[in-house]
Amino acid sequence: SKKKGLSFEEKRARMMEIFFETKDVFQLKDIEKIAPKEKGITSMSVKEILQSLVDDGMVDTDRIGTSNYFWAFPSKAFHARKRKLEELESQFAESTQKKEALQKSIEKSKTGREDTAERAALIEELTALRQKKEQLKAEIDKYRECDPDVIEEMR
């Protein structure tokens, strides 16, 4: 049967294993030799995967002289996850407080708005008055060209 290739995420995970297991600093050519042998990552995709890890901040890189060095230590990944967890927990706490404040404001706004016969009658009266206002506005607009003020403005 055919051998199935690795997904991009699987390759990234295996590349991180190389760094975590060896706890060493590598040049690109070293990683290009190690990755295909030990982790089954094709040598053609090593550079692309390494660059994506650098872009995501999971692997550090530095240029010393004419060479680029790459490294990632398990403690850095731990601290990054810990920092992310703290950030998410603070966002969660903030959201919870906001939710509670909104719940309180909903309860506060509900007081005095209980459905009663008087309230229903007032709402009905309000809608009737709004309709009448719209009718009167339409009538005024109909006679606008006969309005002396408008005629004076035109002159």
TrEMBL record:
Residues spanning the membrane? none
Top-rank taxon of the source lineage equals: Eukaryota
Q: Which residues form the Mnd1 HTH domain?
A: 15-74
Supply one GO BP term: reciprocal meiotic recombination
GO CC annotation: what is one? nucleus
Q: Which SUPFAM superfamilies match?
A: Winged helix' DNA-binding domain (SSF46785)
Q: Where is this region: Disordered?
A: 94-115
Query: Basic and acidic residues compositional bias: what residue ranges?
Result: 96-115
PANTHER family, A to Z = MEIOTIC NUCLEAR DIVISION PROTEIN 1 HOMOLOG (PTHR31398:SF0)
Q: How is this protein named in the record?
A: MND1 protein
Q: Which organism is it from?
A: Ramphastos sulfuratus
